[in-house]
C-alpha cells in the first residue's frame, strides 16, 4: 500500500508540475510537500491514462495548479515518473486551468518547443511530444529505433515550422543528434547544413 501511494504521488507530481507555467514570480525551489499533498487530493483523477476521455478539472484542482511551487515540484520529477502519466491530459488540465506550459520551459525531461497558440504546426508538436519524446532525449547513446507511430508523425510534420520553435532551453533536454537519427530512421532525413534551432546538420 505504501508503494502504491508513493507511485500515485509521483504520477500526479509530474502531471501538474510539467503543465504549469514557470515565471519569475514563482517561489524558489524548496519545501513543496504540502503542494504535493494538495495536488494528490484535488487533481490526481484528471491526469491518469488512458488519454481519452479528457475530463475538465474541478475548480479545486485548478486552484492548486495556479498556486503551486513549480521549481520545487519540477526538481522532484524523474524519467520514471514521466512514463506513468498521460501528457495529453497534463496539457489539457494546465490549459483549462489557465496556466499552460510556456515555450522553452522544462520540467524533468518534458520540454516546450513553442507556444500552444501559434504557428501552423501545433498539432505536429503535440503529436511529436506524445509519440517521439522517448527517442530524442539525452543521453546521446544508445540510439533506439523509433516506433511506427513516431515515424508516422515525422513523415507528415511541418519540419521548418517545428525547427523555428526550438530554443536553447529545448536543446538542453533534447539531443539533436538523436533527432537527426530518428529522422533518418523514419526515411525523412535532414539535408546537410539544415539548421534546427542552433543545431546545424553536419555532412556525413
TrEMBL record:
Q: Where is the Bifunctional inhibitor/plant lipid transfer protein/seed storage helical domain?
A: 32-107, 132-196
Task: Name the domain of life this protein comes from.
Answer: Eukaryota
Recorded hits in Gene3D superfamilies, A to Z, give: Plant lipid-transfer and hydrophobic proteins
- SMART domains for this protein: AAI
Q: Which residues form the signal peptide?
A: none
**According to its UniProt record, what is one Pfam family this protein matches?**
LTP_2
Provide the protein name. Bifunctional inhibitor/lipid-transfer protein/seed storage 2S albumin superfamily protein
- Organism field: Zea mays (Maize)
Amino acid at each position: 500500500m505504501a508503494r502504491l501511494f508513493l507511485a500515485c504521488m509521483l504520477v500526479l507530481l509530474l502531471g501538474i508540475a510539467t503543465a504549469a507555467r514557470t515565471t519569475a514570480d514563482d517561489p524558489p525551489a524548496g519545501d513543496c510537500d504540502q503542494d504535493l499533498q494538495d495536488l494528490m487530493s484535488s487533481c490526481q483523477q484528471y491526469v491518469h491514462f488512458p488519454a481519452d476521455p479528457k475530463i475538465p478539472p474541478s475548480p479545486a484542482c485548478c486552484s492548486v495548479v495556479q498556486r503551486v511551487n513549480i521549481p520545487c515540484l519540477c526538481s522532484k520529477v524523474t524519467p520514471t515518473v514521466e512514463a506513468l502519466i498521460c501528457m495529453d491530459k497534463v496539457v489539457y488540465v494546465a490549459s483549462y486551468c489557465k496556466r499552460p506550459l510556456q515555450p522553452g520551459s522544462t520540467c524533468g525531461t518534458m520540454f516546450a518547443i513553442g507556444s500552444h497558440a501559434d504557428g501552423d504546426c501545433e498539432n505536429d508538436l503535440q503529436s511529436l511530444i506524445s509519440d517521439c519524446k522517448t527517442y530524442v532525449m539525452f543521453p546521446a547513446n544508445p540510439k533506439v529505433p523509433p516506433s511506427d507511430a513516431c515515424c508516422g508523425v515525422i513523415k507528415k510534420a511541418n519540419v521548418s515550422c517545428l525547427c523555428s520553435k526550438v530554443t536553447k532551453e529545448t536543446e538542453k533536454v533534447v539531443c539533436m543528434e538523436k533527432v537527426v537519427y530518428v529522422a533518418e530512421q523514419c526515411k525523412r532525413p535532414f539535408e546537410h547544413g539544415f539548421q534546427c534551432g542552433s543545431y546545424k546538420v553536419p555532412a556525413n
